[in-house]
Specification:
Blueprint lengths: L3 H42 L6 H17 L6 E3 L19 E3 L6 E5 L4 E4 L5 H8 L4 E2 L11 H6 L7 H4 L6 E7 L5 E5 L4 H7 L8 E8 L1 E2 L3 E9 L2 H12 L5 E6 L5 E9 L22 H6 L1 H4 L2 E6 H5 L10 H4 L6 H7 L7 H7 L2 H10 L1 E8 L3 H11 L5 E8 L14 E10 L8 H14 L3 E2 L9 H7 L3 H9 L10 H4 L6
Parallel strand pairs: 1-2
Antiparallel strand pairs: 3-4, 4-8, 5-9, 6-7, 6-8, 10-12, 10-13, 11-12, 11-15, 14-16, 14-17, 15-16
Helix pairs in contact: 15-16
């Protein structure tokens, strides 16, 4: 006899799309419209760039009040945990002293110096919508619309241009923070350099980030994207190594099974070739277009080819399908009828998915889902893909090479000098019969440590504190925490990101 719990689990797994389609998709559209309107109004009515100093002063007042009240609990931002892009919600938000922030604006665009100054809650979607029409862009634009500047600084950001420019932290020129004593400090590679390098990957445990100055570069209207299918693992490794050190501005790979993948290389261009066939211009961001990963998969049969993609469509190519996570939420979402009728509402907001999930869904995700990005040396790609295939057998896999300089801070290349790494992104339901969230996660983490790699900390981490300190170099971080009186004001990074610290 099937239990009530079994029936409930079956309904949630197989029919969650009903709730998503009838409720979350419309609410997501309204939420987006409200957020854009809110940002537009706040920018003009109360949060114009000239008011940035006042907003920072408000944070200072709150921090000083916390000190005056006895510093009874560590501090964190008051931003609700469900608003973050991670599928988990932090437990510490329930007990920490919350500091209100309202830092959502693009403060200044200086085309002569080729820099933009941003508040930390500016999103990638907001940024590309502002910069691209002006003819500018960032060297690195992580692809999901809702990723924030602050999240990319305090955590990390990698994109298909990272083989040339590194991680998001490597295009940041200056940071502004409110420290644990309420003072405001700016830091860069030249000024307060230790603090500057220690902030990246620090997850808000050194101070409150209030502004970031980032490099900008000229934009062009299109990306000429070349699709190169491969049907052999060794060919994949050779080709990725070759193009990662080559002249292309964008490099990315989707792996569809153990041996088949599509390597993509792209370059900014001013226009499509006049003689190009009409179908060579592909506005992939339109609501009725196939999901990008499904489109890429067709080149396994079609063979090598190219097309021109409008720049902003290229930047956010994985947004509509949340890479490919949406196929587990709306199984028929790539059907042409659904795309034409409802595609304009896709994707559901990750934040709303989190807000509306109950305990049963959380437990199901715990048992049946795997979301990880592991950063490993490029020369360890073959062995890493073997581990991912053996442990989870999730496809597609996202492969994104990036250059890692030997800067001070959490991430030290295995060679202790500049080295090419690759991000392996695995998102979905494991096909392996012996999948166990904790045991599988532990085995993969130990492998990544053994090859000198790193784990992105937005997802589940099962490492012990000692293992975490082995993976990440804490020498500069510990020094800065002592210097700026952070030990009482903020927890260590590990205490915010390990699995037991998250719902």
């Amino acid at each position: 006899m099937i239990s009530a719990a079994g029936v409930l689990e079956h309904v949630i797994i197989n029919y969650r799309w009903v709730f998503v389609c009838l409720f979350l998709l419309p609410v997501s559209v309204l939420y987006d419209a409200w957020m854009y309107a809110r940002n537009w109004l706040i920018f003009r009515l109360s949060s114009a760039p000239k008011n940035h100093v006042g907003k920072v002063h408000s944070i200072q007042v709150q921090v000083k009040r916390w000190r005056a009240q006895g510093m009874r609990a560590p501090m964190c931002t008051a931003r609700p945990g469900w608003q973050t892009i991670s599928f988990r919600q932090p437990k510490y938000k329930k007990t920490f002293h919350k500091i209100d922030v309202n830092l959502v604006d693009i403060l200044d665009i200086d085309t002569e110096r080729q820099v933009v100054r941003l508040e930390p809650m500016v999103t990638m979607g907001q940024l590309t919508a502002t910069l691209n029409p002006l003819g500018w862009t960032l060297p690195i634009i992580p692809e999901m619309d809702d990723l924030t500047v602050g999240g990319l600084v305090m955590g990390t950001g990698v994109e298909s241009s990272s083989h040339r420019f590194g991680l998001f932290q490597h295009i940041c020129l200056e940071l502004e923070l409110v420290l644990s004593d309420g003072s405001v400090v700016t830091c860069s590679r030249e000024e307060n350099a230790d603090l500057f390098h220690a902030v990246f990957w620090s997850y808000g445990t050194l101070g409150f980030l209030t502004a970031v100055q980032v490099r900008i570069v000229p934009a062009r209207p299109y990306v000429r994207l070349q699709y190169r299918p491969v049907h052999d693992r060794s060919q994949l490794s050779r080709l990725l190594t070759e193009v990662s050190g080559g002249p292309h501005q964008f490099v990315e790979t989707l792996v569809f099974d153990r041996d088949r993948a599509v390597v993509m290389t792209g370059d900014l261009v001013g226009h499509a070739e006049p003689a190009a066939e009409p179908h060579k211009v592909n506005t992939i961001g339109l609501w009725h277009k196939p999901w990008f990963f499904k489109h890429v998969q067709t080149f396994l049969e079609r063979g090598e080819d190219y097309e021109y993609i409008p720049l902003r469509d290229y930047y956010h190519r994985h947004t509509r399908a949340i890479f490919w996570e949406i196929q587990d939420i709306i199984p028929f979402g790539n059907n042409p009828v659904f795309r034409w009728l409802c595609g304009w509402m896709v994707p559901p907001k990750v934040s709303l998915l989190k807000l509306t999930q109950g305990q049963t869904i959380k437990e199901l995700y715990e048992k049946n889902h795997f979301i990880q990005d592991m950063l490993v040396p490029l020369d360890q790609l073959d062995s890493s893909l073997d581990v991912f295939h053996r442990e989870v057998e999730i496809y597609p896999l996202w492969l994104c090479p990036f250059v890692l300089p030997a800067d001070p801070g959490f991430l030290q290349p295995a060679s202790r000098k500049e080295q090419m790494y690759i991000d392996i992104g695995a998102y979905g339901v494991p096909r392996t019969v012996n999948f166990d969230a904790v045991k599988t996660g532990r085995r993969i983490e130990k492998f990544v440590i053994s090859v000198g790699g790193f784990q992105m900390m937005y997802a589940d981490s099962f490492m012990t504190r000692e293992e975490y300190r082995t993976m990440f170099d804490h020498s500069l971080y510990d020094k800065v925490r002592r210097r700026f009186d952070c030990l009482t004001a903020f927890p260590e990074v590990y205490d915010k990101v390990n699995r037991s610290a998250r719902d």
